[in-house]
Amino acid sequence: MRFVPLPPQALECLLNGDLTAAREVTGVRLSDWFLSDDVTWLWRMRLDQIAKDPRATDWIVRAAVSVPDEVVVGAGGFHGPPDDDGMVEIGYSTDPDYRRRGYAKAMVAALLLWAAAEPSAVTVRASISPENHASLATIAGFGFAHVGEQWDDEDGTEFLYERPAR
User: Checking DSSP bridges between strand 145-152 and strand 123-128, what pairing results, if any?
Assistant: First the structure.
């Protein structure tokens, strides 16, 4: 699994429904899923985040490309750069056409390698709805420990899982 940046220009293209231009910007064949309601809210949120904190550009969502076949299977990244305590939170989503094939686990593994290579990242967090059995199964076996829960205005209760970045 490798991650291809979705720079602000690509996110703008996706929000404008211009998949061809977004593909040109990224250099990969983004699927129609990148224009779906499943993820377009995320492009707007991340553009707003970059406007407030340009450092986020290097940390947030990217296209997830399977190796060696070079198929874009979803998106993954972090919710932003490490906070003052060195915490980064992972986020990932698999295009429905590619679910149940191990790509989400491959994304988590690649995100953990990315975090481990960043000296400023100390802890990796995952926040998951208790009803999201697929994501709970995805992080199993990666050394995450359940550390609590939080309330998310959009998703409701989320379980918090953490593990050392290295």
Answer: unpaired
Who has greater pLDDT, 115 or 155?
115
Query: pTM above 0.85?
Result: yes
Helix (H) or strand (E) holding 45: helix 37-52
What does DSSP assign to residue 35? G
Mention the CATH class of domain 2-120. alpha beta
**Per the omega criterion (within 30 degrees of 0), is the bond before 68 cis?**
yes
Q: Express each pLDDT in 142-161 by its tens digit.
A: 999 999 999 998 889 999 99
pLDDT of 21 reads: 98
Who contacts 64 (Cβ-Cβ below 8 Å, separation ≥6)?
A: 1, 2, 3, 72, 73, 74, 75, 76, 92, 94, 103, 106, 107, 110
Q: Residue 27 is which amino acid? A: G
What the block records as the tokens of 101 is: 């094939």
Tally of CB atoms within 10 A around 115: 24
